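RETRY 2/3 - previous attempt timed out on the joint model. Re-submitting the same 619-residue input unchanged.
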Amino acid sequence: MGTYIARRVLSYVPVVILVSIFTFFILRVIPGDALVAMMGERQGMKPEDMARARAELGLDRPLVVQYLSWMGNGLRGDWGDSYWLHKPVTHAIAETVPVTLELGVAAFAITLIVAVPIGVLSAVKRDTVADYLGRLFAISFLSIPSFILSILTIILLGRWFKWIPPRGYVNPLNDPLGNLEQMVFPAIILGLSFSAGTMRLVRTTMLEVMREDYIRTARAKGVRERGVIRKHALRNALIPLITYWGVSIAALITGSVLIEVVFALNGMGRLTVDAINQRDWPIVQTVVLFFVLITLTINLVVDLLYGALDPRIKLG
Amino acid sequence: MQATEVAVLPERAYNLRDRPAGQRILHTLLRFCRAKPLGAVSAVIILLMVVGAVFAPIVAPQDYRRVNAREKLQGPSAQHWLGTDQLGRDMYSRIVYGARVSLVVGFVATFLGVGLGAAIGLFAGYFGGKTDMLLMRFSDAVQAFPGLILALAIVAALGPGLRNAFIAVSITLLARPARVVRSSVLAAKATAWVEAAHTVGASHPRIMFRHILPNVFAPIMVLASLVLGIAILIEASLSFLGLGVLPPTPAWGSMLNQAGALYFETHPYMAVVPAVAISLAVFSFNLFGDALRDVLDPRLRGS
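RETRY 2/3 succeeded.
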């Protein structure tokens, strides 16, 4: 088991390195460096001043050196300074992390509450009205992009209830109601979007599991149907589900980016988009790297969890 | 006795294999429609969209760029079937021409992405060893990026526009085909006839194209049809963020842009129309991909 963990962790290191190289260099593909981007503030700099500013910022060094310097400093916690926001990158990102985190966790909770029961119901009552409704629900939310749902929801809320989602994030510890007001709709929409795929997978795996011999044995033993579903079928169906969540966390992040933009939430996704529009490369490269790290970490946790839950892997 | 002429009825070949190709295709299509009616319906919708996009000048003769301040913000009418936007442009024309962008980016990016991914998977699976490890690490790195983030990073680097949208979306799509093709190739490599071909001394390209590729074809088709929906979605998202095609080319996503958002509350059709267009397109491609997968290879369920 220990070697399993070590192997999984080690296999991520080269990926992280590759990703950081890719992120850094792709932003420097086109000619014209960051200084030109900053020029928007100070028009008409003399060439000597430009050269001096470049040397100050370290932009005249070869790209490989700049990359190594970025990563080297980064590993010590210094990811550079943002040109646009005039503060360290880590500060800018740290402000946005709680928002995205809250959104993601809330959406995931909603998925658990909504998708798993509906998936189970759909599988158990296969080909009935309940099943068709469940599948319709899934395919609708799978196809209607979450940002479109968000826009339509805001329009609906504005027209019918004369209500606009408030702007500016409030800490849930300070002002729980205000926070709820802000987060409830984005979280619900993201959660329902995410639950579509989950529901389908729960349905599929439950259908497969219900055909297994041990289900027949449990029923023959006299276990009540509810117990059969909960103790025998669902437990085994959950394992592939965990793997699926690991893979689809990327979809959750993608969805949250757009929802943050639509609802004007000050999260990591919105920061990325704004930074791109502002050509602020220090923020863009660091935040993209962080997104990838989060994805990889969750994948790693899922892998380890899977190894812990499935006895065939634990002992094998 | 004299030989009499007997009228000979033209005989229809009994086996489908012996009938003309047109009949074979029609038969397969009808069987698909009967087995998967939803898939057939979505295929029809897709076909209508494609035809509408290709024949856009005929289907939507009004100029989508024509700004007419006097006619702005009108609801659907006889003259403007889907109304006008805040600059007085005809929404119907913009939707039809927007279909061009979405479908073109969808198909081209899918073709490039799945093609490139399949090539990577083919070489990785076939040659194995260091090639495999290198290519798979590269594919892992690409897959580590959440979809939209990668597309955003590429567009950030290269700038907005149609060509860069192709590049961004294709690269985002290439990781999964690489994995799927690689596992198909590994399975095919283990078969007896590939081993035989190798023993006889067939060259690598020959083995790859004649023996391995046919086995890989079905999963690729299924993957491509599923990926099309994702490609359209990513393009719509990029356009929505203002990082897709440049104006004045209309795109469904940019019609939902925040710039027009001021008017959405009072004129909801401005948002509903492109929203329905995007949802319908993604929905149809998803359904069609599902139906295709069920027909071609039910083992790919859950992929």
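The two ends of chain A are 9 Å apart (CA to CA). Closing ticket.
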